[in-house]
Amino acid sequence: MSTSESVPTDLVIGDDGLARPPWAASSDLLRAYYDSEWGMPVTDERGVFERLSLEAFQSGLAWSTILAKRPRFREAFADFDPDAVAAFGPADHERLMNDAGIVRNRAKITATIGNAQAAVRLREDGGLADLVWSFRPETTPAPRSMAELPTQTPESVAMAKALKKRGFSFVGPTTAYALMSAIGLVDLHLVGSHRRGCSGLWD
């Protein structure tokens, strides 16, 4: 490999001297999320349900939009407690549709409530977190540029299929892979980023 090929691209050196991908260097909010959360293992039911829900709401939108609204999402959806959200009725649905602090998409709201109900049912078969983590691949990508980042993999396709079979919706292969990267099943930090390997699960 030549020297030019070994140098990671698409990294931005911040004023703190640390290397990040462009999206993580574009705002203080995204930088804080990247530095402290993205790619760190999340293995509890509520945490996985929250991130699955937010990834579904993000579909078609910028992640920065969802992240900025996350505090209000948490308030509106009972801190993403599956039992509480599973009990939401028509009045809650309309309350959410009238809440300007979240993404008011009827299909996504309906899906989130239905997914909470599916998560509660799934406890009889090991639970949401165990199901999601069962799709952790044997290896993780080692992208050196944004162009090398995959958007879905055989594991995310299989995960989406398994979740849909158990009653989840708005969980296609791309959303499933975004979830995998967000909660540490894969390490999509670019080689050379100061966060590469932060989960402790991958070399």
Could you walk me through the main structural features you see in this protein, from its secondary elements to its overall organization?
Helix content is 49%, strand content 2%. By secondary structure, the chain is an all-alpha fold. It has a domain at 45-182: Orthogonal Bundle (Endonuclease III, domain 1), CATH 1.10.340.30. Helix 3 crosses helix 4 and helix 3 (45-58) packs antiparallel against helix 7. It is globular and about 50 Å long. Mean pLDDT is 94; it is low at 1-7.
Question: Secondary-structure blueprint of this entry?
Answer:
Blueprint: H1 3-6, E1 12-13, E2 19-20, H2 28-36, H3 45-58, H4 63-76, H5 82-86, H6 90-97, H7 106-122, H8 128-133, H9 154-165, H10 173-182
Antiparallel strand pairs: 1-2
Helix pairs in contact: 3-4, 3-7, 3-10, 9-10
Number of distinct beta strands: 2
CATH C-level class of the domain at 45-182 is Mainly Alpha
For the sheet with most strands, the description reads: 2 strands, antiparallel
The CATH architecture name of the domain at 45-182 reads: Orthogonal Bundle
Q: What order do the SSEs take from the amino end to the carboxyl end, as H and E?
A: HEEHHHHHHHHH
* Radius of gyration over C-alpha positions, nearest whole angstrom: 18 Å
- Measured by DSSP, the beta-strand proportion falls in under 5%
Distance between the termini: 20 Å
Structural class: mainly alpha
Query: Which percent range fits the helix content?
Result: 40-55%
